[in-house]
Automatic annotation (TrEMBL), chain A:
Protein name as annotated: Choline dehydrogenase
Similarity field: Belongs to the GMC oxidoreductase family.
Signal peptide: none
InterPro entries given in the database record: FAD/NAD-bd_sf, GMC_OxRdtase_N, GMC_OxRtase_C
Keywords carried by this UniProt record: FAD, Flavoprotein, Oxidoreductase
Taxon lineage: Bacteria, Pseudomonadati, Pseudomonadota, Gammaproteobacteria, Pseudomonadales
Positions of the Glucose-methanol-choline oxidoreductase N-terminal domain: 80-296
Gene Ontology terms for molecular function: flavin adenine dinucleotide binding; oxidoreductase activity, acting on CH-OH group of donors
Domain Glucose-methanol-choline oxidoreductase C-terminal span(s) in chain numbering: 383-516
UniProtKB/TrEMBL annotation, chain B:
InterPro entries assigned: TAT_signal
Species: Halopseudomonas formosensis
Protein's name in the database: Twin-arginine translocation pathway signal protein
Amino acid sequence: MLIPDLFRHGLERGWQVQNASQLVEDLTLEADIAIVGSGAGGATSAEILSAAGFRVLLIEEGGLFTSSDFRMQENEAYPTLYQEGLGRLSKDGAITILQGRAVGGTTLVNWTSSFRTPDQTLAHWASEHGVVGHDSRSMAPWFERMEQRLGVERWAAEPNANNDVLRRGCEELGLHWAVIPRNVRGCWNLGYCGLGCPTNAKQSMLVTCIPAMLDQGGSLLYLARADRLLLAGDRVAGIECVAMDERCVAPTGRRVRVRARHYILAGGAINSPALLMRSEAPDPHHLLGKRTFLHLTSFSWAQFDHLINPFYGAPQSIYSDHFQWRDGVTGPMGYKLEVPPMQPGFSATVLGEPGTPGAGLMEQLPNSNMLLALLRDGFHPDSASGTVTLRGDGSPVLDYQLTDYTREGLRRSYLSMAEIQFAAGAKLVKTVHRDATPARNMAQAREIIEQLPLERYRALLGSAHVMGGCPMGEDPQHAVTDSLGRHHQLENLSIHDGSLFPTSIGANPQLSIYGLTAKLASLLAERLA
Amino acid sequence: MNTSTEQPGISRRQLLRCGLLGTLVLATAGGIASVTRTLRSGPGTGYRQLRESHIPMLRRIIPVILDGALPAGEADATVQAVLDGLDRSLDHLSPAMRSQSLQLFDLLSLDLTRGAATGIWRSWENATSEQVANFLSRWEHSRLALFRQGYGALNQAILLVWYGQPLAWAHCGYPGPPRF
Ligand SMILES: Cc1cc2nc3c(=O)[nH]c(=O)nc-3n(C[C@H](O)[C@H](O)[C@H](O)COP(=O)(O)OP(=O)(O)OC[C@H]3O[C@@H](n4cnc5c(N)ncnc54)[C@H](O)[C@@H]3O)c2cc1C
Ligand code: SF4
């Protein structure tokens, strides 16, 4: 392949990178700062702390895959790059939960949309959740720093035809729409961000912060799962890791014990609270794993007369916030509208329709479009929220049950999406719900959508944005860490990932995580110096 | 009671039986689950996870879920491709999710549970497509959350595996990833 594999070149230059699956005996490692998780929060922190002169060890449970491994094949990417081998679901199986699991974390497979934390969200955290110091003005320089670091810019090329449906529909109806900023450099506009970028254009942690940390003398241990923190009084004394096999399914039996001066959890929502729960970390107010949010996602499928080829081209380039804040921050549920990339496995599974009706829709894939709504959960007291529990084997699972408030938002989201699709010229719209038949016009769609029972298993729902479960805030009765990510009970432990958010974000979360953790890591470096 | 043109759902007696069996099999690691586990042999020849007993069941269910999507005349090869794909996904699932899936397949395929759970009292090999479709539709509309969940899980696993492979792409007009 013509594209240089930056990561492999680095390995040849002698980076300190170790594959724990190949260990033949147990190991003890020491560092100034040990970080669990190499995704958005972990890798951002690792680069900053190693630049400040600390010896950083980054611990990742997933495997190492680099650009030459990314062959844009769904059946290769899903089992290897996603949590639980793409098997993660809510506890009752009703919601598919997508999270990454590899060196680079979810940034390796995300769709590159890069939004700052909305002002409304930051203000809500300050007024309702005791978060101090993170107002829009204080956060702006951190977002700007990470935007520059990761090449975030409004997508300058034409949106692909799938995104263009959203633009045209909104334009037609006079609704808000705008172009999405993306973290790419020299993007080939291929559309396979969700399967690992084959050209290294996506500025994921794999090609940015992790190489920088390794160049600065930091080290990386992968296929090593942090199993528990070893606690001594109000301090963390070490991390006990288990080496995983090449599939990241079964422990090999080898263990790695890590000792450091300071520890950072960045395993992402669900996994970070789970590690604390397994470790029996102090949780005097029973907060761990509660208030986990999903941006619960609903879908609407449409067919057009013209060719869309929705599997090609930058996956997300247009969004609409028309319904996001319109009814107030804490009013009826708001949502952001976007489209997903529609490779066939993903599309057929989201659609979830077997037999000839499903086959009939899939046959029209080249003429199809899908819209999605990200429901802003956690702002209203009646909003659904999830709770992490541990299974018998210590692995986490999220219980997330719909509420009437959330159902009302779901139904409105179906109506908004159908309306936009018809306005953009769809000849058929199928709400992604088991009881929805395809509609030929908006009147029909409205009639169908108003009748839909919004029960689990009937509405087909997903999430790619898991947030919360270790909320930050100044009051230990309501927060696991303070506003700087310092654990309220454990002195030398910080949390730097999406689990810190006291609510969902109301925008795709990666830049919120980059900006916040860049700030937290920089302040930590000053404190430890 | 072996075919079911009757109303969606199953008789009260069956409901109780399946409810009990299903709950135990799917939701616990002990009880019937351990019974089925001891009944379950190791992986079938050529598979890492699928058991010999799962194969006839999946061979009947796959073509019904993919009705209209499988290329004509190559049924055997395509069903085999889905079986291989399912086996590979199972092999990469977390242990917890893998054992849930295998327990679902056990429930569907073992003599002890198959009839009550699916209404297919004779062997899978002899089940007609209509019987399979009836069973799926009863699960889809079952009052038992467990069956509704099982229905979704079967569909999504099979659809993901099938459409993830090149054999499926002619049908859905996907030219495959760009080459460069
Ligand atoms: C398909 C998809 C598309 C997305 N698209 C976008 C998008 O376009 N824009 C956007 O803003 N966001 C997007 N997101 C979400 C975004 O990428 C994530 O919210 C973000 O990466 C989360 O960052 P994090 O630091 O919290 O955790 P992650 O990035 O998930 O990193 C956590 C890492 O920790 C590892 N880990 C967990 N537990 C342990 C343990 N015990 N021991 C060792 N390692 C552990 C995990 O394997 C993982 O690699 C998308 C997500 C998905 C799944
Ligand atoms: S669209 Fe751009 S960033 Fe995404 S995979 Fe293709 S080249 Fe990489």
